[in-house]
Amino acid sequence: MTPRNQEESQPEFWIKDAQSAIEARLRYVKATGSARNIVMFLGDGMSIPTLAAARTLLGQRNNKTGEEAHLSFEMFPTVGLAKTYCVDSQIPDSACTATAYLCGVKANRGTIGVTAAVPRRDCLASLDKASHLKSIATWALEDGRDAGIVTTTRVTHASPSGAYAHIANRDWESDADVIDDEYDPQTCPDIAHQLVNSYPGNQFKVILGGGRREFLPNNFVDEEGKVGRRRDDRNLIEEWQMDKIARNSSYQYVWNRDQLKSISNDLPDYILGLFESSHLQYHMEANERTEPSLAELTEVAIRALSKNKKGFFLFVEGGRIDHAHHENFVELALDETIELSKAVQRANELLSEEDSLIVVTSDHAHVMAFNGYTHRGGDILGPSDSIGDDNIPYMTLSYTNGPGHRPHDSVHRVDVTGDEDYRQLQWRSHAEVPLDSETHGGDDVAVFARGPQSEMFSGLFEQNQLPHLMAYAGCFGPGRHACSLADD
């Protein structure tokens, strides 16, 4: 086992660290106000080079040179950096990071909502309730606020699951996955089951994303002809509906954009929207009739949650930035980043800076390089102005590893600009090391904030401090709160 500080297995270590960081910031940050509403946007895999390339693409789409452009959240007044390592891994995945930025405690790679005392895939270790962590969504609910999740991935995927799940393996999205790892789902319930039948997921007012297959039996065909994955013969969508009936609450399940639009003028108490069997389609490939944009999902969620006068916590993920990078689909990755920017802009328009904190960040980096000596305004998706010493061009945006690798001889690389599918949406930028899936990077990620106490998000900090900082600004959850300063 990798040597580590054993104290890191205890949640108190990370909570104390976060609270100490808040105290340290208070010595030099002059922040004011408190947040009734908090929206956390996550660009999954949105590295700093991804931000620079996406803003350039955005500018070039608007017939500018591009480099001078900016994404919506890059205009926020406060910027910081977060360290993304997890307890057992130098370079993290989306599970241990979700546990950090939503539960406030760093954990092991592949685990969600449990402390580092739980190794990945150890069902029995995860049964210890002392290892279960509360998320900032739970803190908000306990304070009488509402909570919700929005994502372009499956709602049972690693990032959104950090808001509600306690599980030893991020891959246990349905009972079939638990069974395949030779565990009993009655002992260790899968993620979809936890979302529908356990606290806090069963209290979320808004759940919007993909992943119908994780909720449906494997003998059930959904609205788009896709088969479910569950082996327990349970239809969790129906169970979600029955639970809302038992609460005597209004509710609506929707599976396409038209249905979502149809309820937008009279939003029910609870909304479950599952728009694909698996992940939502990439924006540039999506069927606009059936597939809502991330900005549209965000607007519905904010309007629904705003009915609670005490406020809310909302998690919004642009999750397919990560997927495109893993595939070396560089244009799709940048476009998904621009879509996240649009969603942030919509939230910025809907929510007052006086009482609503918006935080935008990423969970981890990727290994896309922004390189070469291209002239100002050069096509960000094209080759660099310079060429290799082998007289072969290379792309301004390339990868250090991934499926875009082209084998080459001892002298020459492949000239990728000669590919038959060059510059098509699913053309892969070249990669140095051959891998089926490109890896994450260990870089720090950017954090942007606006609204009450946004100044607290400056500097360099551990990723697990994020929910503590947000809760500090919102005056709920554990530890010190901004509202208490008046009493000091």
TrEMBL record:
Its EC number is 3.1.3.1. The active site is at S94. It is a lipid-anchor; GPI-anchor. It comes from Danaus chrysippus. It catalyses: a phosphate monoester + H2O = an alcohol + phosphate. This is Alkaline phosphatase. One of its GO terms (cellular component) is side of membrane. Keywords: Cell membrane, Glycoprotein, GPI-anchor, Hydrolase, Lipoprotein, Magnesium, Membrane, Metal-binding, Zinc. Belongs to the alkaline phosphatase family. Zn(2+) binds at D44, D322, H326, D363, H364, H440. It comes from the Eukaryota. InterPro entries: Alkaline_phosphatase, Alkaline_phosphatase_AS, Alkaline_phosphatase_core_sf. Binds 2 Zn(2+) ions. Binds 1 Mg(2+) ion. Its main location: membrane. Transmembrane segments: none annotated. GO terms for molecular function: alkaline phosphatase activity; metal ion binding. The keyword Heme does not apply. It is found in: Cell membrane. Its cofactor is Zn(2+); Mg(2+). Mg(2+) binds at D44, H157, S159, E317.
